[in-house]
């Protein structure tokens, strides 16, 4: 029996599931999917059952949600489109990194393959988007960029910001206001679990971040 046509609902769900696993240590949960999609948990459960029936995921209620090969192919295609569009909006149109996620959500389904690949070529075939997320290539392969969470560092470490979660525009603006963007070099000066904060030095200026904000930041050792 042929698989039903890929709908916007299918694309949205498999993409969020794929991205949950992509973020180091992450995994999809019904409540988290409901929050991101703006629907009830019961709606998510019903749609997950439909996705399983149609062959996009393996799923049992209260169990792990796993993409099938078909689900993974669909997710990677949409993620590639989304991240190329985000990059184009920043590089060519001058939007900021906190503005592009919702815009790309609207455009990723409408842009033709021809226009998408012209965008990609104009950008020079980038391997990361404005948030440092890897962009799958035309064959569906995603490069691996080793990194660690900012709160996994120790005082004295000199690191560069290489990836920031794009789930919250407010958080991206919060970080921008404190001089933290992709490529920012900083030195960790203190981590306090009691105060739920981490202090860093950026070009001689001390900046204190809440630990829940630091959870969205991934870094690698600074070079040079």
What separation lies between the terminal Cα atoms?
Answer: 58 Å
Q: Could you tell me the mean pLDDT? A: 93
How many beta-strand elements? Answer: 8
pLDDT < 50 runs, ≥5 residues: none
Q: Which word captures the global form?
A: globular
CATH superfamily of the domain at 148-221: Ferrous iron transport protein A (FeoA)
Whole-angstrom Rg = 19 Å
| Overall CATH class of the domain at 148-221 | Mainly Beta
Quickly count the helices: 8
Major pleated sheet: 6 strands, antiparallel
Class derived from helix and strand content: alpha+beta
Question: Which descriptors would you attach to this protein?
Answer:
224 residues, alpha+beta, Arc Repressor Mutant, subunit A, SH3 type barrels, six-stranded antiparallel sheet, 8 helices
What can you see in these coordinates?
This protein is of the alpha+beta class and 224 residues long. Among the domains are: 60 residues, Arc Repressor Mutant, subunit A; 74 residues, Ferrous iron transport protein A (FeoA) (SH3 type barrels). It is 41% helix and 17% strand. It contains eight helices and eight strands; from the N terminus they run αααββαααββαβββαβ. Helix 4 packs across helix 5 and helix 4 packs across helix 6. The mean pLDDT is 93.
């Amino acid at each position: 029996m042929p698989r039903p046509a890929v709908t916007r609902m299918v694309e949205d769900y498999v993409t969020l599931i794929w991205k949950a696993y992509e973020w180091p240590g992450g995994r999809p949960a019904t409540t988290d999917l409901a929050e991101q999609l703006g629907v009830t948990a019961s709606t998510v459960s019903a749609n997950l059952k439909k996705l399983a029936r149609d062959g996009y995921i393996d799923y049992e209620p209260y169990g792990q949600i796993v993409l099938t090969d078909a689900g993974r192919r669909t997710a990677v295609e949409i993620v590639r489109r989304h991240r190329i569009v985000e990059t184009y909006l920043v590089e060519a149109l001058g939007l900021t990194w906190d503005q592009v996620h919702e815009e790309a959500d609207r455009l990723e389904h409408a842009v033709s393959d021809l226009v998408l690949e012209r965008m990609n070529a104009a950008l020079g075939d980038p391997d990361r988007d404005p948030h440092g997320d890897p962009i799958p290539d035309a064959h569906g392969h995603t490069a691996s960029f080793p990194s660690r969470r900012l709160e996994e560092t120790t005082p004295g470490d000199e690191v560069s910001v290489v990836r920031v979660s794009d789930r919250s525009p407010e958080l991206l603006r919060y970080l921008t206001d404190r001089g933290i963007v992709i490529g920012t070099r900083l030195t960790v000066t203190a981590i306090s679990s009691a105060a739920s904060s981490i202090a860093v030095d950026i070009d001689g200026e001390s900046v204190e971040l809440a630990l829940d904000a630091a959870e969205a930041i991934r870094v690698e050792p600074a070079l040079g």
